[in-house]
Structure formats: C-alpha cells, structure tokens
Amino acid sequence: MGIDQSTEMPKRLSDKPIFQRVAKIILYVFLIGVAVLQLLPLVWLFLFSLKNNQEVFNLPPLALPQDPQWGNYVNVWTQGNIGQYFFNSVYITASAVILTVLFASLVTFAITRMQWKLSTLVLGLFMVGLMIPVHSTLIPLFNFFLNINLMDHPLAIILTYTAFNLPITIMILLGFYYTLPREIEEAAIMDGCSVHRLFFQITLPMTAPVVATTAIINMIYNWNEFVFVNTFISSDKFKTLTVGIQNFIGQYQTDWGAIGATLMISIIPILIAFLVLSNRIVEGITAGSVKG
Amino acid sequence: MNKVMSDKKVIALYVLPAFLLLMVLVYIPIILTGYYGLMRWDGIGAMEFIGLDNYQRLLQDSTFWRSAGHSGLLAIFSVLSLVGYLIISMVLAGKIKGADLFRKIYLIPMLLSSVAIAQLWMRIYHPTNGVINRFLESIGIENTPLWLADTNIVLYSIFIPIIWQYAGFYILIYYAALKNVPNELVEAARIDGATPWQIGYKIKLPLIAGVIKVTIVLAVVGSLKYFDLIWVMTQGGPNGASEVIASYMYKQAFNTYNFGYGSAIGFFLLILCLIVTYFIRKLTASKEDVQY
Amino acid sequence: MFKKAFTKVMAVGFTSVLLFAACSGDEPTETGSGDQAGNGQEDVTIDFMHLWPSGSSPDHNRIVDGIIAEFEEMHPHVTVEVETLENEQYRNQLQVISSSNQLPDVGMTWAAGFMEPYVRGERFASLEDIFDDEFRDSFVGGVLDGYQVDGETYALPVELNIAPVFYNQAIFAEYGLEVPKTYDEFLQVIDTLVENGETPITLGNRDAWTGSMWYMYLADRFGGETALNEAIDRTGSFENDALIDAAREIQTMVERDAFIRGFNGLSDQEAKSEFMNGNSAMYMIGSWDLPNFTTNEDVPQEFRDSIDFFRFPAVEGGAGDVDSWVGGPGVGLFVAENSDVKEEAKDFVKHFVERWGEQSVEEAGIIPGTQVDTSAVDLPDLFIDVLNELNNATNITMYADVQMSANVADTHLDLIQALYGLEITPEEFAQQHEQALLEEE
C-alpha cells in the first residue's frame, strides 16, 4: 500500500548540493558527538577500575588515577573463584538465551502462522507474564524449587531466566513475524514441505535479524542478573560473576575499585558476543534470496 | 495448506514446552502473589487470612498513589522517548557511511549493569564534584541544582539515566525492524523520487507499526514496574520524592515485613499493567495492521 | 550458511542443558551419615550464613575461618559450611528462606526491630540455656538487651559501636578552633568554618540513619537518656518538648549550612569520602570506621594522624549527660529454631562469640559485644580512647531505627529526611512520629 502513495509525492527540486552537504556535515558531527558520549561510560568504567576508594569519589569521573591500581584486577582475580564464576556465567547465559529464543520462536511461529482457536488466549497469557514484578516471585519460586529439589542447582536459574524472558522475547518476535512476507512459506507448504522443515529451514533463517536482536537482549539481561542467582544458588561452585561484585561489598564499606575491575572483566565477553551477534542484524531479506 | 498449518500435534509440540515453563515458573508466583495479598503476613512466620483488607488499605494509601503517579510519569516519558529512538534508528538504518559502526557504539552502554550505570550517574549528579555542577559552576552559575537531593527535581534527575539505559534496547529493536523492511519497496520508492524522509515516514514507518506497538507496551509495562536504578541511586528518597510502585512494594515486602501488603501491591501492579496494556492495544488497533 | 551455524549453536546449547540436568546427581550430600570412628557421634554439618565476604572484609573472613577450623578440630564430627552474601542481599535472602523455614543453622541478625518478627514467627531459637553467669558477665552491660524478646535472648552480639563526632584536627587548627564543650560553642565552630568556606559536617542523609544519629544526640542532650526511648516504647510521647527542641536544632544547623551541600541525595559512603579527603571538618559515624582513621594502609598516614573525636557537646539547661552515647550492637549470631543440629549450633555460637571477642578488635578493628581488656591488647590510641569512652558510658541509646519496629523505623527515616530538607516543621515531625507509633500499639 505504501508504494502507491509515494508516487504521488511532489518531486523534489533535484539539486541542492550546498544545503545537502551542510546537512550531512551537521548530521555527522551529531552522530560522532553522540558516539563519543556513548563510549565515555566504558572509558569511565576502565578508569574507575584503576582507582582506589578515595579517588573513586573525589576525582572527576574521567580523571586519570594518580597511581593506577592494577592491583584491583589482581585482587579480583585471586579472590574467590572468579574463573568458576566466569564459566558459570557463560554457560548459564548461553543455555538460557538459546532455550528462550528457540522456545519463543516456536511459540511465535505457532501463533502467527498456524491456525488454532486458543492462539490469542495463549498469547495473552504470555503477555501477562511480562507484568509480574520480580520481587514478588522470589518467595514463591524459592518454595517451588525447594519442593522439586532444584534448589541450589544451575537448572533452577536457567529455567527461571528462560521462563521470565519468554514473554518479552515473544512480543518482540511477534512484531516481526507479522510483517514477514508469507508468500514463501505458503509456497513451501504447497510444495509439500513439512511444518518442521518450514520452521527450521525457512522461517528461522528469515528471522535471523530479530533472532539476533532478541538473543542480544536476553544475553544482557541474563548476564547482569543477580537477584535470582542469590536467591536460588547457595553453593559457591554454581554462582555467577555478579557474585564477584557482591564479594567486594562490605557491611559498612565497599571496595569500589575492585567492583570496577570485576565489572570491567565481566563486560568483555558480552561485548564480544554483542559485536558478533549484532553483525547478524543485516539487510532485510528479499523475497528472492531464500529458496524454499 | 490449512490442514498442514492447523495440525494439533505440531502446535502442541511448538507451544507446550514454553507454555509449561510459563505456567509453572511465572503463573505459580502470580497466583501466589494474589493469594498472599489476602493475608496478613510478615513473610516469615504464620499468616492470617484478612480478605480484601490489604486492597482496601491500598486504595487509601496516599504514599502508594504518589508512587503510582511517579511510575505513570516515567511511563509517559519512556513512551515519548521512543520517538527519539525511532529517529536515531532511522538515521542509522539509512544509507549513510559508517552506520554499522555508529550503531555498535551507540548500543555499548546497554551492556553495562545497573550497578555500573548507577555509579556513573551518581558521579555525574554529585552536588559539588559532579560533572554537571562543575560545568555549571565553571560558567558562573551559583546555587547549582541538587539533582538527587532536591525533592522537586529528583524524580526527573533519575528519569534521565533510566531512559538512557534503555535507549540501546529500543534502538536495537527498531533498527532490526527497519532492516527487515524489504529492499524492493524502498528501491521502488526511491526510483519514484521519494526523499529519504518520505521513504522513512510513508513506507518504513507503516511497515514497522507492529513493532512500534510492541515497544509502546514494553515501555509502559517496563516503566510501571521499574525498580533498579531508583533503588540504587535514591532508594525512593528523599522522603519518598522518587518512590515508584516497585520500590514501595519492595520496602513493604522486605524492609518493613508487610509481605502480605507488598504482595497486594505487586498483584495490583499486575492488574494495572493489564488494564493499561488493554487500552494501548485498543488505541493502537484503530490503525489497521500492515500486512502484505 | 547461517542455518548451519545456527543448528550447531542449537546443538551445543541442547547438549549443555542436558549435561547440567545429568550433573544434578553429583551434588554433595547435605549431612554426611554413618558413624565416625572416634566417639561414635554421627557426622553433622552446621550451615552458617554471614555477611562478611572475603573481598570486602578479608580480616573478618580470616578470623571466621580460623574460629571454624578450631571448632571443627575440637568437634571432629562437625563440619561448618559457610555461605556469604552482601548486606542487602543477605537481609533479603534471610526473609525468603525463612518463609520456607529453611534458615541456616547459624546466621547473623540485626537487633531489636529487625529480629523481632523472626522470634515471633518462631524461627530463632532461644539461647538462654547456653548462658552461665561467667558467660553472661563477659558481655558489655546492656548489650544483650537488644537481642531479647520477652526477656529471652535470641542472638549474641559480635559487634558493639558508639558514634562519636570525628573531626579533622588540621582543619580545626587552621582556624584556631577548640573542641566544643557546649552546644553553643559547637554552633560557633560551625559558623567559623562556614565563614571560611569550609564544609563543617559531611552527612550522607540518603542513608537517613546517619541523620538520625545527629538527631538522637540532640534529643538525648535536651531530654536526657530516657526521652527518646520512652517515646518509642510508649511509656512516653514523641510530642515531648525536648524531642521537638531537638528537631528544631537540626533545622537550625541546616539553616546555618552546617551540613554538606546536597546531603539528602548523598550516600553515607559518598559523604565519608569528603571527610577522608579533608574536604570536611566533622563526620559522625559508628566506631566501625575506626580502622579508616588508624590502621588502614590505603588511607594516607597524614590524614589518619589528623583525626580525633569528641563527645557530642552538652546543651545548656538540657537534661542530658555528655557520657551518654548513641550506638548499640550491630549484627549478632542466631541459631535456627528448626535446626536439626541445635546443640552443636549453640556450642558453635558460644565458641564463636568467645573467640571472636578475643581477636576481633586487634585483628579486624571490630569492637565485639564482649568485654575487651584494653590493657591486654595492642591498639592505636584512637581505638583505646573509644574503648575507654565505651567503658565510661553512662548510657548507650540504641539507634532509633533499630529500636523501632520496622514499620515505624521506615517512617522515622523518611521524616528525618523531611526534617533535614526543611519540608516539615519540628512540631509536624514529632506529631507524625507519634501517629506512626500509635498505629503500632
């Protein structure tokens, strides 16, 4: 429908080179300015991680520390099982992200592509899941995991992350599935393609950009989450990197430099994963590019 | 075709795993929260059934309504900020040089955990050493604002980091959605002489309307139950000036041992989200969904 | 191509999930069974939860580990398993696990208002049976009161603090200031500092318990040691002239710019850093911060040498005594009522408190709830001075927000912020306290 309207638009005066060039420069200055602003937090965090407790509070945020406290990193690395926490964070995050994105894609596919009576109801039920405040769930879930003997087990965390991220993931996927062309899928079905093949070989690849998007969002949520970990996990060997931060919060005093170092260490893996995943958000799929 | 796409077994296979997870891990807490809301319970010992007393108290609790007002205000600001994110995403998704790099840089702050973001903004807002007030003093402004201590402005001060924190999230979704717009449509419009703005407004925007609707719901629901930065930066203070529903609920449930009342607040919040979502969908449904 | 990568990722994901599920078998058994050779006692495990993570509190942690090792050696059939959580998470978790009756055998609790629901909910065990006269006398007088409900003791303190006014001698010397003996002198000190562009007092009133301590001293100096306590325990009223006068004086101080700019938005840690950097002349905090002013090597020696403290000055015509302090026990150890190793847990708590008391001041700079023989320990002068004040104290008024029930404490802290923010009058401050206390009755 959009195409017809666009033809009716008045033709623009063809060249306004100076105006356009100035506009372009202004645009770039703005874009670069914002980019610098957005990078500063990372620089700040790095400098933060090299300060001692006095400097953290009294130096301007972007001032260099007098005597860089590389010891903060040593401290973080030697205190507790950071290697173990690191490993736990990676596999818990990865498992939950994969489960969530897969389950959510399956549900969204079933809701938007398949015909069944209860689909709107089920969608509604998933959406309600978005609305419960996290802290209301702690006591009920603790009790539940206790009863099914999953307390202090990584699976409790993985399943909780999956369940709580499903609603938001489904909602984001939904917006995309609605706009996705159906012709290819219809053609595939005509050709006798099974639903499973259709989903795994056509729909899922076609939705790669949004799958990557939701994977990034899920990853960030899970990676930084600590309330569920603290509540359901008590053994050190199952705890995640966010516990590394807790380790430096004292009863009356907190070791901020060490927390900065932990935050810095813990941002690297998701930064890499983010850069990789975000390359997957590419140009829109054109009808010809996917073969059924 | 219809037969294949309404195969009950396939639907069950696709929906049930996620649905079971949702029912068990999300709905058990929801139902129990509603149940605890009917109790006088400190969250520790025995409970006592008191019917709807907690809800009656809620309706008359001026602190609660004040907090709800703050949450509502946050929801409004969050929705308004979506316009800005949409514009940025359109620029980034356009055919400009370096868009890919800009996009990646713009999203980096969203990788930071709330702990880091809170620390950053507390440095920015510090009454004497803070980045903003130092700047204001350097240009000769005396009596610089007390960003987090002045009860008239603290709420707005704290909205800024919250909105900034979520910028990446929405930009990412919009960007992926815009990239998902089939190239043919854009090319066709371009050949017809449409300007970039016209392409954006008349073609891309209607095509991603579904995604925009979803983000409006996410922004509103997310704002109504927002907790993180407020808790770390002000704990709802001074004297309740930045209290929101979730922080008030947390205080009731965990700090003052009114777990029953806290649960009632949590359940009420859920109902509130449901009602608001219903109206959003009603309002946005008037524009017909864009389909191919 | 993407499809291939995706299926691969998927496969890895699934296998890993399955692996974890499979791993669930090899969890450690909670309590080892079977007879230990030796004395025929069954092996037991005591779960112990505390809030001193090794990263932020290495000294505490080392002492705790040492005490546990000792205890395990003395009781070969006992293993103590430790879990640590940071302050706020700890509070939260204690309530969550308590709701399912899963408290650790031994854990830490705060006094009075915090622990009362746990005692009423029959979650904590009474510790009366582990006291003999000698053990009871080993505690500083009155410190156990905070852990008593209906006359029975439910926890044993491991820390006791008072809150002096710490001041920077260098700044005082620069302006020829003397330690104020009276409240009027104190106000003059503030005025002099303000005139010279110094920040007299740093205060992080976002954590309103710090503002509450200043108020409590004024209440004490105006109305004597009983005024506030009686208002809280309902033998008196909050709408008492002394308590209103104290509130008025807080506002006088605020109006004289006694406190740092933007105090209502600062955390205690931010405020403290202003003092630690010599940007502020005075800072009131619990004696738990003494190591920062004495032994902490991360703090410049020059700064540590310049710090001293004074007692909150007397108010002329007030009923208070300068030897009356604000303070009280911090965390204490409880034994869970439903613990299946209650006897061992009680032994452990007793042993812990005894051994902790012998080491904590010297090794970690924490003043224990038990008596410290100042002549026998090697401590910096500032520490000795504070310990002597503690011994000479005529009264220690427990922090108002700890004394009060959790509900009233919440109101109190909000009102403190409002009072300092000049949002309410002293009369309203008193009246709203009174109302909150009445509702609790």
Report on this structure.
The complex is a heterotrimer of chains A (292), B (292) and C (441). Chain A has helices spanning 2-7, 17-48, 53-58, 71-78, 82-113, 119-128, 134-147, 154-179, 183-190, 195-206, 208-224, 227-232, 241-246, 256-278. Chain A is mostly helical. Chain A has 2 domains: 15-71; 73-289, Orthogonal Bundle (MetI-like fold), CATH 1.10.3720.10. Chain A is flat, with a radius of gyration of 24 Å. The two termini of chain A are 26 Å apart. Chain B folds into 2 domains: 1-28, no CATH class; 37-285, MetI-like (MetI-like fold), CATH 1.10.3720. With 441 residues, chain C is α/β, with parallel strands linked by helices. Chain C is built from 18 helices and 14 strands. In chain C, strand 4 (148-149) and strand 5 form a beta hairpin.
Which key terms come to mind for this protein?
heterotrimer; A: 292 residues; mainly alpha; MetI-like fold; 14 helices; 71% helix; 0% strand; disordered C terminus; B: 292 residues; 2 domains; two-stranded antiparallel sheet; 13 helices; 2 strands; 70% helix; SBP (chain C)
CATH class of the largest domain in chain A: Mainly Alpha
- Overall radius of gyration of chain A: 24 Å
State the end-to-end distance of chain B. Answer: 19 Å
Helix percent of chain B reads over 70%
Quaternary: heterotrimer
Largest sheet of chain A: none
User: How much of the sequence of chain B is in beta strands?
Assistant: under 5%
What is the number of domains of chain B? Answer: 2
CATH-assigned fold name of the largest domain in chain B: MetI-like fold
Indicate the structural class of chain A. mainly alpha
Please, what is the average pLDDT of chain B? 90
Overall body shape of chain A = flat
